[in-house]
Amino acid sequence: MAGLKNKLKQLTSEKSEISKIRRKGENDYKKVKSISKKYSSSLKSTQKRIDTFKQSAEDVNEMLSQKLAQMESIQRLKSAAQERLNLENQNKEQIESEIDFSDTPEEKQSLQYRLNSIISTIEETKNEIKQRTSMEKKFSQAIDEIEKKKNSISKTIKKNVASKPELVKLAKTAQVKLDSASKKFESAKKRESSVTAKLSKVKAAIPKAKPKTKKVKAKPKTKKVKAKPKTKKVKAKPKTKKVKAKPKTKKVKAKPKSKIKKKKSRR
């Protein structure tokens, strides 16, 4: 019996100590888990940003390629129009020279007709060049904006890529600490469970003293109180008429009794 009690005391003390270790291990595990989750989340967010910006960079590059191709097309059309304008100006000068040296009115009229056609073509070509120049300017501005956006995206990608290795290192370190804290916590839980089981067996082996049962006094029987019979309501008596008092009769005084003197007898 004494051995069981000593064992009980020992196991109770051991359980108290292991419970402290388990609680500390649990707190350490929660802290490290929070840090690990933070670094892991940051790493995922960084990678997501890199992927998003890379996709944006691809979209911007595609847009830039389209604008550059349109710009080159406009420049080619503008250059071709400029060449036509130069040629038409040469033709105009030549026709004007031929008109000056024309011999007949018919020839002069024919040359004048050709000159008017050339002048009309020159005006149309000038308008075309003007429009191409305006479009070229707009595309040039759009290309500049796209290139600025492209450079900004490239800088963001480089910044995130540069921060990634450090985050990977921190995440790995936090994961190692988390694994270690998890093992310690699980070990402490198993030890606590084992000690708790042993403690329960020892408690069960110790016979329990039967507690004295107190006699409970019987409650006195309560007398049933009979219900009072309902009282009948008595009708009020009718008021009696007052009878006038008879007049008092005068009392007649009694006549005084006559005293009879007794004669003394002689002896």
Structural commentary:
75% of the residues lie in helices and 0% in strands. The C terminus is likely disordered. The two termini are 130 Å apart. The chain contains two helices and no strands. It is rod-shaped and about 150 Å long. The protein has a single domain, classed as Helix Hairpins (Orthogonal Bundle), CATH 1.10.287. By secondary structure, the protein is an all-alpha fold.
Relevant terms:
Helix Hairpins, disordered C terminus, mainly alpha
Mean pLDDT, to the nearest integer, reads 79
The SSE string, one letter per element, is HH
If helices are DSSP runs of H or I spanning 4 or more residues, what is the number of helices? Answer: 2
Largest sheet: none
Count every beta strand, where a strand is a DSSP E run of 2 or more residues.
0
Structural class: mainly alpha
The CATH topology name reads Helix Hairpins
Strand content: under 5%
Indicate the CATH architecture. Answer: Orthogonal Bundle
Radius of gyration: 65 Å
Tally of structural domains: 1
Q: Helix coverage percent of residues?
A: over 70%
CATH classification, class level: Mainly Alpha
Write the layout of secondary structure elements.
Blueprint: H1 2-100, H2 105-205
Helix pairs in contact: 1-2
Summarize the structure.
The chain has 2 helices and no strands. It has 267 residues and is an all-alpha fold. The protein has a single domain (2-205), classed as Orthogonal Bundle (Helix Hairpins), CATH 1.10.287.
